[in-house]
Amino acid sequence: MTTLSWIRSVNGTLGHLAPEHVAGRMRRAFMTPRNLPARQWELPLLASAERITLRFGLSALRWGKGPTVLLMHGWEGRPTQFAALIEALVQAGHTVVSLEGPAHGRSPGQQAHVVLFARALLEAAAELPPLRAVIGHSMGGASVMLALQWGLRAESAVSIAAPAQLLGVLRGFARRLGMPRRARAAFIRQVERDVGVQIDRLDVSGYQLELPGLVVHAADDALVAASEAQLIHKAWFDSRLLLLEEGGHQRVLADPRLAQAVLELLARTTQPARQSA
Fold first, then answer.
1. Which listed CATH number (2.60.200.20, 3.40.718.10, 3.40.50.1820, 3.30.930.10) goes with 39-165+202-268?
2. Is 0.90 surpassed by the pTM of this model?
């Protein structure tokens, strides 16, 4: 029996008898990321980075010189997963600041979720020069769109392989782990309590996304369905949808068409030059 099969079996049994208990265990698992080491191909970029510490202890890596682009990775992600994009941005004359989200890397915290990531973006932006763009992958993309609702200012934004709304993510997680109906309902209630925001409000269909944007997704993404990108694009009036034939959930970050599309967006939204400090 695989680990997932065992978890599903236990949840299926205990979820009927003690739904709140099972929900609590799964909620902690859902919000507690592993710190995974950088892959070999990330190490050269990591070695060339300047590590900076922002207020409240947020850690970030910085490269280049010029107008600032802020990046946010996804769940259990790392700044250097954006390696190909970072290299293209630096070569094009930008400063790139890539955050380590709460409970990731050297940033403080034990738990992480989209609201904490969104707050981290706001905290970072308050210390950085005006942002030419803000870019997020997966949960980082969802947090970018949420932070924009809460006052994050940037000339443009990019969502990569991001979900359109959190409720579907929670339901999918609960189903994969075999939680019965009462346990699933308790799980969602507990997550909503910890996040501090009504789950149904974390949905791009109700967002105001008024800046130029780019929505990128791979058709073969097995973690976040490409249909989510269609929903984001529909809600984001001034956005371009780039749907790639393949790239999965992670490899899409290395696709040269992503970097090209980002640079085209930046060229389209270029304002009078703003040099970073």
1. 3.40.50.1820
2. yes
